[in-house]
Amino acid sequence: MDPTEEETVATEKTFEQLRKLLLEEEQRDHQQLSRQVVELREDINTRHRLQKKVDPIIDDKLSYVREHFPELFGPALTQAIKRQIRESRDEVIDALYPIMGKLVRKYIIVELSALSEKIDQQLEQAFSWEMWVRRLKSWVTGRSLGEEIVVQAMEPTIQEVFVIKQHSSVLLGSYSRQNIMDRDMIAGMMTAIRGFAKEAFAKEHQDLQTIEYETYKILLKKFQTFYVAVTVSGAMNEAFKQKIDDLVLDFVHKVVNTTSSTTSAEDYLSEPLRQYFSQTNL
Amino acid sequence: MTVSKKVILLGHYGVGKSSLTRRFVYQKFSNQYNTTIGVNIEKKVVALPTCEISMIIWDIAGETSHQKVPQSYKLGAHGVIYVVDLTRPNTYQKLDTEILNLQKSLPDVPMLVIGNKKDLFTEKERTDIVKQLPLEPFALSSAKTGENVDAIFTELAKRMV
What we know:
The complex is a heterodimer of chains A (about 280) and B (about 160).
Chain A: H1 5-45, H2 47-67, H3 69-87, H4 89-124, H5 129-141, H6 145-153, E1 157-165, E2 171-176, H7 183-201, E3 210-213, E4 216-222, E5 226-233, H8 238-259, H9 270-279
Antiparallel strand pairs in A: 1-2, 1-5, 3-4, 4-5
Helix pairs in contact in A: 1-2, 3-4, 5-6
Chain B: E1 2-10, H1 17-26, E2 39-47, E3 52-60, H2 71-74, E4 79-85, H3 95-105, E5 111-116, H4 123-132, E6 139-140, H5 149-160
């Protein structure tokens, strides 16, 4: 018996309801998934949206690398630089040369500026009595006034003189044109340096004669029971050194050898040193 | 009147020579150990009833024997402080020979033997250690607490006058 049209419609309706009941949730899920896939595709394919998502991650990584760069890449970089230096020495020198040149040039500029300032100060006194003396000197020596000023700016000057007992480092006297640290400690340290140099190079009959410190030079002159240390600033030439030698010998001959036996005070040479060296124009 | 005197500190490395000097000159102490390279020079004026002594202290780098110390550092010394470490027997085992040799190279120079780091022992332990020393020390000291430090240097100043 064939179902009636009414029965068929009823059956289809029931099927439809059943399908709805069974598949509704899956369809909803399917639609949601499709939407998400579309959004994801847009996220990936749209630069600014992708950037928004990825940037924080990259930032984190970058700051980690920045903080841990030495541990992460230090050894590898050191190795690479060492290898590079070993294998292409000439190229490395070529690369460094301009930098070294710049450093040297900078140093020279600084030094020249200091010299220029000093010359400026002296030019300011152009109409002073000293400047007229210099002009006269320049006229006599045949050197230009500029040269004369430069020579004077670099002229060596005695800054300090110490007379120190050999070995014990006891200071017998000192003269200074400036305020310096404890003179007893300077005497001690100078004696230790002399002793060290002697022991280190094991030369019994040789002595340390000069200590250089930037623009300062300390000249050491040894006598039987004591030594004399003269600190000089400026550019010292052989002639000036000779003058100091003569001066020290004269001082020892005229002052030290005659004073020592007549007094018991320990720094008995300080006053004679002041009197003697303040009168010299060195 | 002030008289300058050269004082040298001798002894093995790490016995506390620099700490004693630092304690005496600056009234300071540090637990950190810094090796002395060559020699370090300090100065302190000690007032005695009759005069003032300007002590030029040569704190010399430690050596296992004073014979290894450069001769020029020792020459001209007016007084010697020989320091041993009470915690390390090897710093005082040859003390008698060391002092005898020193007296030969610096005749008539007053020398004081000091046992340092006394703060690390009890009274009983200290008595036992002193018995083991080949020579009786002038004093036991502690650079850490400052005990006996001034007294040692003052005594040497008196003996140097």
